[in-house]
Amino acid sequence: MRVLLFLAILSLAACGSAGSRVSPAPSTPAATPSETAPVRATGPGGAPIASMSVTGAHAYVRAQVTQSAPVLLPETAALPAAGLKADVVARPDSFSITYSDERGVRIFLGLVAANPGPMTDRGAQRTLAFRGDPKAVAQIDDANLPLSHRFVIWREPATKVAPSSGDYDVRAGVLPYFLASDGIDDAAFWRVANSLRA
Fold first, then answer.
1. Quick check: 82 pLDDT over 80?
2. How far apart are CA 71 and CA 178, in angstroms?
3. Which of 25, 38, 107, 138 could form a disulfide with 99 if both were Cys (CB 3.0 to 4.6 A apart)?
4. What are residue 85's phi and psi, to 5 degrees?
5. Distances in Å between the alpha carbon of 30 and those of 27, 33, 185?
6. Is 19 within a domain?
7. Domain assignment of residue 2, yes or no
8. Boundaries of domain holding 148
């Protein structure tokens, strides 16, 4: 029994001394996605999320979304700032892009059936005609804050509808679009909204 105990102690001592000579693995810099390469995260339906430039994002969406039309995207010049990055999820029937910068600007555009949260007591909501939808809904969460969260949600008349979609009802003959922002004022928001083109 004493021999076994002695051998166990020697084994532990050897491990400790050997372990003290092990150097940590060299750290490698984190991989950054290329201009148009999808990263490992996934969005709805397992579609990859890709981070890229605005022009890269627009090209990526137009190449990926082949079963739904029109694919509406803003004119680059209408976006509020240079240096925006774009995080994209795109499938054959739908897409979403989040444009953002380090100052807190965030603009979301999606061909998705959105379910926005209720507005606050200081919010305002209105129905308006927008892009062929007489019942589009625009909302600002806090009318006292010029850069507050705001959105417009509308049904775009479809020129092409996917045979099936997990994101919206393909039988309706319209495509559900959603544009939302944080960190830009009303004029900048509507400049983006009114620049949407197929």
1. no
2. 12
3. 107
4. -105, 165
5. 9, 10, 35
6. no
7. no
8. 33-194
